[in-house]
Structures are given as C-alpha cells and as structure tokens.
Amino acid sequence: MSAPESRSDVQRRLLSAATRLFAEHGFDRTSVSQIVEAAGVTKGAMYHYFRSKDDLLYEIYARVLREQTRRLEALAASGGPVAKRLHSIASDVVVSTIANLDDATIFFQSLHQLDPVMRKTVRAERRRYHERFRGLIEEGQRTGEFRADKPAEIIVDFFFGAVHHLAYWYRPSGELSAQQVGDHFADLLLDSLRPR
C-alpha cells in the first residue's frame, strides 16, 4: 500500500495543473472542474487547500515572489560592495522570473480579475520587494558609488518594467540562457548607475 500524499504534493499538483490550464485557456475560461481533473484530485481536496480559483491565481504568483524576496534578503545581507550585491540581486530576479515565466505571465494577464483584497495584498508584497531593491540603490547613491542625479524610484520602475516584459520576448530555445539574460540586465543596470 502506498503512503498517502503529503499536503505539499497535492498543493503542487493543483498549482501545476492550474498554471498549465490558465496558460492554455486563460483564468476566466478555466473551471475548477478542469483543474481538479487535470490534477487528479477531488474538488473536496482542492477546497481543503484553496478556497477558490482566486486563491490558486494568488498562490501561483505569491510563491514566486516569496522565493525572490527570500533570495533578495539573503543577497542584500551578504556584505560586500553595494554594486556587487545589487548586480547579484538584479541578475537573480531575471533568472527566477524566466524560470517561472508562465506563472508571471498568467498573473500579469489576470491580475485585474483577482479579488480586490488579494490584489491589494499582492501589490503591497511587490512594493516591499521594490522598496528593498530601491534601498540598495539609495545606499549606493549615499556613498557615491552610484550616480545620484536620477531618482532611485525611477530607476527601479525602469528596471522592473523590463523584467516584467520578459514574457513577451524571451524563449528558452533562443540564443541566450536565462543566466546570460540576467547578467546582461544586471550589467546594464549597474552601467546606468555608474557616476558620470
């Protein structure tokens, strides 16, 4: 007799099925019945872990953001010159976004369909990530390592606008690996911050 599935296994299967179906059909054209059938679980099992499709959509994005935030905090606290830390973080967010491109694409396409309370929560979590990222730029500006004639907020918005656009052009079959793209993005960011 096989061991019962763990909570994380069932959740992972549900999230994987939802991600695939949302990517293929769209959030609004995917039913709970399709998700549970694709995941091989019952509706009762789904509702044990997720109250609704909105919960699935929220978790698809939130799990990526939680991991990116954990990595940002570890890299930011690693010590060393701020330019080196910022380069590592900028490259990492590109690589991790590419690794979860379907999740990010689905979320940005469907954010407007998310329950307003959840939408507000996600925006607040993203804002915290961006503020921590901005804090490193401001640190470099204070120490003179980065140019200070451009507002840090504009720099952050410019950089993440490019990151969020990855889904429109990046293809794993292309010439550049995710790491190469991440390093190019980070190089461009750091080059733009170099004092004139």
TrEMBL record:
Q: Which residues form the HTH tetR-type domain?
A: 8-68
User: Which GO terms label this protein's molecular function in UniProt?
Assistant: DNA-binding transcription factor activity; transcription cis-regulatory region binding
- What does the record give as the DNA-binding region? 31-50
- Give the protein's recorded name: TetR family transcriptional regulator
Could you list this entry's UniProt keywords, alphabetically sorted: DNA-binding, Repressor, Transcription, Transcription regulation
Any keyword NAD?
no
Q: Specify the domain of life of the species encoding this protein.
A: Bacteria
A Pfam family of the record is TetR_N
